[in-house]
Amino acid sequence: MALVAAPAAVPRARDRVRARSDRVGRDPPRLSFNNDQESKMTAYLISLAVAGLVAMAAADALS
Fold it and tell me: Which residues of 4-42 are buried (b: 16+ CB within 10 A; e: fewer)?
């Protein structure tokens, strides 16, 4: 049994698939840099990461 490749279909100009996001006008994302609660959480996570790195370095130095 031989497999024969069929020629590619020629796309028609009116057959166009578009995403829903293209159809609806969207506002740009709103960025907030002055949110105090977010900045406190960011500072907490950074300090937690630094404390973890210090703990790993101390454990490596003592072993």
Answer: eeeeeeeeeeeeeeeeeeeeeeeeeeeeeeeeeeeeeee
